[in-house]
């Protein structure tokens, strides 16, 4: 089988991979092919009807993402927090109502949704991105790596692997990767893999009209976190949050009813007047999570030093937010890892 050769292959068209491709192109390195298993780009950034069902927020210390947004002429805005927020210790006890200081530093969102940065980064990549291209094996052949996919054989002098390390550990490598590396890959938690995100859209932001911020927090409840998710232009009104993992095994309609009943209790019956209800269970995304997902009992550790090295005789480099020493598991970590991968490629030419 004849391969399609490029100087570089990037596996994964999420924020990390597209950042690397963007920087390489800026530096005149355009012989780059990006292999993406999904039909769309973005990785764990998914924006549906103005609702971010994947990566959503960033904060003031996230300077590399901020600089990238500025370079791409993308705006940002503060997470809405005016009015009463609700803390529910458990549904059998009275809820605690509180107001956040309006001048307090809060999380920020990207104008146009998180997907806006993906669209901007990919504007000039065009046919370099191969959609619906699922990687199966990576084999060292002479001076290059051959990447076998469901859509044929690709080869490159160097390959940048941006999919989650745990997921990458399920691929076949010839020769095999070192056992110590595989062990670390398998132990590295995949950010977002345990999350079930929910979005509800409305004709008006009724919670704001009732002096609620839209924030409802409660770890043991059907919805463990909920936030106002109206868009930057303030003409699309929604709530977005995280569903309790205990509801994963429930039927969709039962899970939906549990969510609505819970929110109705604290935000009022207007929550039943939603226009759209949708959810994204990341544990069921084959390009994010592995089978037999394990619960998270503590804060995951990211940025293992092993991921700074090249493997397969200097031909394979790992990237992605889980590999970042700084802000791993955040949008910032994805950008940092993408910039670092581009730097290493440029310096190794």
Describe this structure in words.
There is one protein chain. By secondary structure, the protein is an alpha/beta fold. It folds into 2 domains: 4-41 and 122-189 and 289-347, FAD/NAD(P)-binding domain (3-Layer(bba) Sandwich); 51-62 and 73-110 and 194-284, Polyamine Oxidase, Chain A, domain 2 (Alpha-Beta Complex). 22% of the residues lie in helices and 28% in strands. It has 8 helices and 21 strands. It has helices spanning 15-26, 63-71, 115-121, 165-168, 179-187, 206-209, 252-267, 331-347, and strands at 4-11, 32-35, 47-48, 51-52, 57-58, 76-78, 84-87, 96-99, 108-110, 129-130, 135-141, 144-149, 152-161, 172-174, 196-202, 212-217, 223-228, 237-243, 276-281, 310-311, 316-318. The strands form 4 sheets. Strands 1, 2, 10, 11, 12, 13, 14, 20 and 21 form a 9-stranded mixed sheet that branches. Strands 8-7-16-17-18-15-19 form a 7-stranded mixed sheet. A 3-stranded antiparallel sheet has the order 5-9-6. A hairpin with a 2-residue loop joins strand 3 (47-48) and strand 4 (51-52). Helix 1 packs parallel to helix 8 and helix 2 (63-71) crosses helix 8 (331-347). The protein is elongated. The model has no long low-confidence stretch (mean pLDDT 95).
């Amino acid at each position: 089988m004849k391969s399609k050769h490029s100087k570089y292959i990037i596996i994964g068209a999420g924020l990390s991979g597209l950042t690397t491709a963007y920087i390489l192109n800026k530096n005149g390195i355009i012989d780059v092919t990006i292999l993406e298993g999904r039909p769309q780009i973005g990785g764990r950034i998914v924006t549906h009807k103005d609702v971010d069902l994947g990566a959503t927020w960033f904060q003031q210390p996230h300077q590399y993402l901020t600089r990238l947004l500025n370079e791409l002429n993308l705006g940002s805005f503060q997470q809405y927090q005016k009015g009463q927020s609700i803390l529910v210790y458990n549904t059998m006890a009275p809820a605690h109502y509180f107001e956040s200081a309006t001048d307090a530093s809060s999380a920020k969102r990207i104008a146009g949704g998180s997907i806006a940065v993906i669209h901007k980064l990919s504007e000039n990549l065009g046919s370099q991105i191969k959609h619906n291209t699922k990687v199966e094996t990576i084999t060292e052949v002479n001076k290059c790596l051959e990447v076998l996919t469901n859509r044929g054989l690709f080869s490159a002098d160097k390959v940048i692997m941006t999919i989650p390390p745990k997921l990458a550990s399920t691929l076949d490598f010839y020769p095999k990767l070192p056992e110590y590396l595989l062990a670390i890959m398998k132990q590295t938690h995949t950010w977002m893999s345990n999350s079930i995100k929910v979005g509800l859209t409305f004709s008006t932001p009724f919670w704001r009209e009732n002096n609620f911020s839209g924030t409802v927090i409660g770890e043991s409840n059907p919805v463990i976190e909920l936030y106002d998710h109206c868009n930057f232009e303030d003409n699309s009104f929604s709530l977005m949050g995280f569903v309790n993992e205990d509801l994963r095994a429930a039927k969709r309609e039962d899970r939906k009813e549990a969510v609505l009943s819970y929110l109705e209790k604290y935000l009022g019956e207007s929550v039943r007047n939603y226009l759209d209800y949708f959810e994204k269970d990341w544990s069921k995304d084959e390009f994010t999570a592995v089978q037999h997902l394990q619960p998270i009992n503590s804060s995951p550790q990211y940025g293992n030093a092993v991921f700074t090295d090249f493997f397969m005789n200097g031909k394979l480099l790992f990237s992605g937010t889980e590999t970042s020493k700084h802000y791993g598991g955040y949008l910032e970590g994805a950008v940092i890892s993408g910039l670092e991968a581009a730097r290493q490629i440029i310096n190794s030419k």
